[in-house]
């Protein structure tokens, strides 16, 4: 788990879920976030209970309540951790291949036995909890920002028109994949991933995403 140095647990004036711990505190955070993810998969956001998470993580309830204070704070930190652990973007020198790599990574994540249900639970929570929604928006902003570089490079190579919005291209790759996960229930596989990537690339070349 990637973590950075930060203030002590329960530091006054620190928003729960924003401290970057180190040492023993990092190990506690790892255990608690793993337990929180398990609980979300099993019970959803409505069933997320800090005392249950503490029990699963084998840490004191006081530690969990002091550091995260609420289920929303716990989910916010879980999303931060997920963003920290996400794989870096691919750089193949080809827009089509970069976007296909992005789409395949999304599909692998969404079809993973644990990660898929976890994303569904978090997205469902975001629909009814403003703080969780804000954390989810930050998570996707980070991921889109990380992958936008492949679009920027394609513009520099002359593959795409000047003024192409990188974030819109990356969002167009994953949008149909999340639609299948959350709305249609249609299968998700590499063929679907490649088709989504190719469609986004074709639209980008046609100037659809020029600001």
Overview of the molecule:
The chain is an all-alpha fold and about 210 residues long. It folds into 2 domains: about 1-85, Arc Repressor Mutant, subunit A (Orthogonal Bundle), CATH 1.10.10.60; about 85-205, Tetracycline Repressor, domain 2 (Orthogonal Bundle). It contains 9 helices and no strands. It has helices spanning about 25-45, 50-55, 60-70, 70-85, 95-110, 115-125, 130-155, 165-185, 190-205. Helix 1 (about 25-45) crosses helix 4 and helix 6 packs across helix 7 (about 130-155). The longest helix is centred in the last third of the chain and has 28 residues, at about 130-155. Mean pLDDT is about 85; it is low at about 1-20. InterPro entries: Homeodomain-like_sf, HTH-type_TetR-like_transc_reg, HTH_TetR, Tet_transcr_reg_TetR-rel_C_sf, TetR_C. This is Transcriptional regulator. It comes from Streptomyces filamentosus NRRL 15998. Keywords: DNA-binding, Transcription, Transcription regulation. GO terms for molecular function: DNA-binding transcription factor activity; transcription cis-regulatory region binding.
